[in-house]
Amino acid sequence: MTRNSQPIMRTLLTRATLIDCVDPRPRPDCTVLIVDARIEAIFPAGSAPAVGDAQVVDLEGAYLMPGLWDVHVHPDYLSLAEVPLPDQVTLFGHRLQAALLDSGIVGFRCAGAHHYMDVAWKRAFDSGQHLGPRLFASGHFLTTTGGHFLTSGHALEVDGPYGFVTAIREQIKNGVDHIKLNLSGGILGPAWDLHRHSFLLPDEIKAAFEICKLREFKVMAHATNPQAVKAAIRLGAHSIEHGYIMDDECIELFLEHDTWYVPTLAISHLTPKQATNFWEQGWVKNRNLAPALCCRADAAADVHEAGFRKALKAGVKMALGSDIRPLKEAALLELGLWVRDGATPWQALVAATRNGADICGVGDQLGTIEAGKIADLIVVAANPLEDIDNVRKLLLVLKDGRIVSDKRPKGN
What we know:
By secondary structure, the protein is an alpha/beta fold.
């Protein structure tokens, strides 16, 4: 049979232990039928359909779940003097593809990328020119003169209400999916870039949010202290990134306005003093962060953790974003930090699957294993609800219903 003159592809995933990220209980011995790119049906144990012309993939009891999402990422921080722009664009694409194939990260939301390299790769992946994850682009992040993380190369310094309006219109013209505003300072930066400081004046922040509202563009708000968090939520931010310092009123506003929170625990937690396992220690060693910045992160970690725990307990909508590199490792580290800071493995998995798709506006199509949804799926060898690090035991990655990475032992 054909559909629109194209052969219909049927794939049957049998003997799957299903973690659908809807129901927290794994379901053993399930069969999932994929027709072309979508999940056609899910069959419980003992009710698998006749095979017909389907390709059969026997999962032998391994764990089938939605692919992972990381909703706060950047390309590598490289100056044009170090690496020419074409090489940086190519490297970013390679990193994104490796994250899909090696770690099962099927979706990314960018939080700042110079020269619209995220827009370029989004178009390349969406068109099928290259295999890669689903990418949601921000273009540059916008901050003030002397604002946050200017050394990253991904910032645009703008000032005054119309400076922000002009810059936002320029981002929109170049094809971004959302607008990233850096409203305050950070943990990892020069001495004048402090996370307890807010950077935008009232007329600047109001103008920035107003033009985004008029153009129907979501604001991804870097907000790191109570003043910035509250201002962003009240003005209609779609998500708050980081929230290193938050008081009880911040939590109340999250709930009142139904705003997303992306905590990026890795920024304050991954230092030599705080690394607790093999993967964290290896990452910290390779990162080789300056001692002064490690001290700033260590000093911020307890308050950041306390805010995360408050938000989790209160039921704030939360999605997983890492803000670190390499992209294929970042989300896996962040998952571990969520659990270390009090989330259950189930809460962490939902944040990295269902909620990742939801925050990007595609939760009706992706993020869970349900009939009708696009089959962006992964298979892991052991139960991540028992140990979150079992997501590292990757066997298969499917995108649009097709196996794009097969790490099963030879002979299977």
